[in-house]
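A student in our group prepared the protein record below, which I am reviewing. What it holds is a sequence and that sequence's fold in token form. My question to you is simply how this chain folds and whether the tokens agree. Do not assume that whoever made the record got everything right. I have pasted the whole thing underneath without changing anything:
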Amino acid sequence: MNTITIQHLAEKLKLEILAGEQGLERVIDNDDIHRPGLELTGYFHFFPSERIQLLGKQEITYLHSLTKEERDERIGNVIKKHPPCIIITRNQEGLSYLIKHCNEEGVALLRAKEKTTNVISKLNNYLGKELAASIGIHAVCVNVFGVGLLIRGESGIGKSETALSLIERGHRLISDDLVILKRIDPETLIGTHDSTNRDFLSLRGIGMINVPRLYGSGAFQDETLINLDILLSAWDEKKYYDGIEPPKAVIDYLDVSIPNLEIPIRPGRDIASLVEVAAKNWRLEQQGYTAVNEFYGRIQNH
């Protein structure tokens, strides 16, 4: 199970730390967020203490309307449940009672400048990706014409060289050699790097190169949706390759099915161009057009 620390969350989302510094090393393993409402009235059945607690303008205004004794009791009871952290939105002030209880219980108190809906959106997006189920695979990941591609094949088949040709044509590298795949919902997979191989492309005979330094920042991006899986394979003279309608295939990663096609390699084949065509063709298919259907239609008309 993936986890992140409160400290990491605060740094990534630029949240101000108001109290409870001793709780910054606690970990988050749940991407759900809770806004305590009934809990502030004293009702704690089904309270999800494992979730981040978010206090917006509505909750803070309600707390300010209470007497000091009521406020201390009600917010104190929430903090005593030891949630991972408490986040205040809209840069709200007058939080001395929250600071007091969070310091006493070691619960990190964080504050965001943005309005509540924006903070919830940012938290959902960030936690959804960071805590998503993930695997690492041996492949190259690139973005070609806005289509996220995995390029696989045996070591030495030419995956990195193909990626280099695509970069020189204006496309973007995501990761070379090790690709981290994350399932962010039942039908969506993203590909990214593992931080250590960020920016780098390894080429036999040349060595390691830094893609953004050689080709500019536009030649690299951190992640992409995975739309198509391409397998590069050595040409087999005994195998029949259908040039009209290859069999449809899919490959599953983390229970997400991705369309898969095989591109056989032999001298004279421009692999980068074939990959570009595969990406364009995938886009057309998403719009409902397939060349083979038009081709068969012409044959029937004649």
